[in-house]
């Protein structure tokens, strides 16, 4: 058995009972005491249905208003909560439900049919969130956590292969929240807006920060740049977690303005970011802190600190205080695989053998500068090897995105008889933009070595992304058949 701590929501209900825990974008408010009471009622209902300590239960729901209380209820019931991606097909969901050995599936009403299709051949009991009884009578609930106990399982995004279930302990989530506060600071007036899905570790980690810190969060059903701007200007939001495509939309909506002084953090994750976008944010004096993390690290494990945000533009910062981060390379600025270790790093995947390596191999490539700041380059499996040279798609995408009229770019390798592989570019253009390949090629002459320049361009309406808004480069070639619009 490991170290035990009191249930974090109980503690906040005791110390901050009337403080707003969750504010919906429609103005509805839930205090910490109300959230604790509602979560316990749902936990009693779960116990009444047969959920016991260690039972694997799954959640398939959008950012529905009842989801936060259900997530906390699962911990009161002692269950292991499997969070499912709402964009998956029934076949993909069925694989995860069977792989995770789920016994109960809970869904929002809108996803009930998909859940039924996914679980029809599995020994699973399914209920909508609204069907959980609230009058099952009080029974024992878990009032403390063993930090070594598994709390959640989240599947990897599957950008490079079959997804695996990452097992997160209470301790992983606890240490992730604490390390983030030590890095970024914690202020009494902090309010964090949640616009990422809660089945994604980036969104889930904010919910954990709320109950560990006693911090108010504003909770959105779907991303909406107008509502986010209103929340920042009118409701005192100080932090927002986003990925690249979200930041671009927020900047477009903001125009030439900037955010008020109380706004102190735009936490940007999800992989390498085009440098022109970071420069654009810096011109607006928007505090963008690039961060590095993944499902296996319970969210961020390295984050750029506020004092270095402009001086180290493009860096993901240095490892959080309780984390260690190495680059498998011999010298500064040399690219190698990123290795991590720390109490927020998951020990293993479900139904997979645990690694005996001291550090977790992330599959990401990066380098450190002379001050130890990390720069993320790309995924190992996305690297293009052209004529014996390593070509990093993210580097090319960053340059392409700075060309006038290009909204976003995706790059992948395609077979080439002479060079083995060469880069192919897929571009999303602004409306009414006239494409001129010759102008693009002239633009790239002094920005990219010849072997890095795309050999072919495709104009597409959108790029393939997963539910975390990460670019899925392996799906890019399929766009050629879908749109057949080669330039």
TrEMBL record:
Pfam families: AMP-binding, AMP-binding_C. It comes from the Bacteria. Keywords: ATP-binding, Ligase, Menaquinone biosynthesis, Nucleotide-binding. Residues 9-350 form the AMP-dependent synthetase/ligase domain. GO terms for biological process: menaquinone biosynthetic process. InterPro entries: AMP-bd_C (IPR025110), AMP-bd_C_sf (IPR045851), AMP-binding_CS (IPR020845), AMP-dep_synth/lig_dom (IPR000873), ANL_N_sf (IPR042099), ATP-dep_AMP-bd_enzyme (IPR050237), MenE (IPR010192). Pathway: Quinol/quinone metabolism; 1,4-dihydroxy-2-naphthoate biosynthesis; 1,4-dihydroxy-2-naphthoate from chorismate: step 5/7; Quinol/quinone metabolism; menaquinone biosynthesis. It catalyses: 2-succinylbenzoate + ATP + CoA = 2-succinylbenzoyl-CoA + AMP + diphosphate. This is 2-succinylbenzoate--CoA ligase. The lineage of its organism: Bacteria, Bacillati, Bacillota, Bacilli, Bacillales. The gene is menE.
């Amino acid at each position: 058995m490991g170290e035990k701590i009191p249930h974090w929501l109980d503690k906040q209900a005791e110390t901050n009972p009337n403080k707003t825990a969750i504010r919906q974008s429609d103005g509805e408010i839930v205090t910490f005491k109300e959230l604790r009471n509602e979560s316990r009622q749902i936990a009693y209902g779960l116990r009444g249905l047969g959920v016991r300590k260690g039972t694997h239960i799954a959640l398939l729901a959008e950012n529905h208003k009842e989801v936060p209380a259900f997530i906390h209820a699962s911990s009161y019931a002692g269950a292991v909560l499997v969070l499912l991606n709402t964009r998956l097909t029934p076949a993909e969901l069925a694989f995860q439900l069977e792989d995770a050995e789920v016994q109960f599936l809970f869904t929002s009403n809108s996803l009930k049919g998909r859940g039924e299709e996914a679980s029809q051949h599995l020994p699973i009991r399914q209920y909508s969130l609204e069907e959980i009884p609230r009058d099952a009578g009080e029974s024992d609930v878990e009032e403390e956590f063993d930090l070594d106990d598994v709390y959640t399982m989240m599947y990897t995004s599957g950008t490079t292969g079959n997804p695996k279930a990452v097992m997160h302990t209470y301790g992983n989530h606890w240490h992730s929240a604490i390390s983030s506060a030590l890095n970024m600071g914690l202020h009494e007036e902090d309010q964090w807006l949640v616009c990422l899905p809660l089945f994604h570790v980036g969104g889930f980690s904010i919910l954990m920060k709320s109950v560990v810190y006693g911090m108010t969060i504003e909770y959105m059903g779907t991303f909406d740049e107008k509502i986010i701007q209103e929340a920042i200007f009118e409701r005192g939001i100080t932090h927002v977690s986003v990925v690249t495509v979200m930041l671009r939309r927020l900047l477009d909506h903001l125009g030439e303005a900037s955010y008020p002084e109380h706004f102190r953090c735009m936490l940007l994750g999800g992989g390498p970011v085009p440098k022109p976008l970071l420069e654009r944010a810096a011109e607006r004096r928007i505090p963008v802190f690039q961060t590095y993390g993944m499902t296996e690290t319970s969210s961020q494990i390295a984050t750029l600190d506020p004092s270095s945000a402009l001086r180290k533009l493009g860096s993901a910062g240095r490892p959080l205080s309780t984390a260690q981060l190495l680059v498998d390379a011999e010298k500064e600025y040399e690219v190698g695989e990123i290795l991590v270790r720390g109490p927020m790093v998951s020990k293993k995947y479900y139904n997979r053998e645990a690694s005996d390596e001291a550090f977790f191999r992330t599959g990401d490539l990066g380098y450190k500068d002379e001050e130890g700041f990390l720069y993320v380059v790309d995924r190992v499996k996305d690297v293009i090897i052209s004529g014996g040279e390593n070509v990093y798609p993210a580097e090319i995408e960053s340059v392409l995105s700075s060309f006038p009229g290009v909204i976003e770019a995706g790059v992948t390798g395609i077979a080439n008889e002479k060079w083995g592989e060469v880069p192919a570019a897929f571009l999303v253009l602004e409306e009414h933009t006239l494409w001129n390949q010759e102008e693009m090629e002239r633009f790239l002459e002094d920005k990219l070595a010849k072997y890095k320049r795309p050999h072919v361009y495709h104009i597409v309406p959108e790029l393939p992304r997963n539910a975390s808004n990460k670019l899925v480069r392996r799906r890019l070639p399929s766009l050629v058949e879908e749109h057949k619009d080669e330039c």
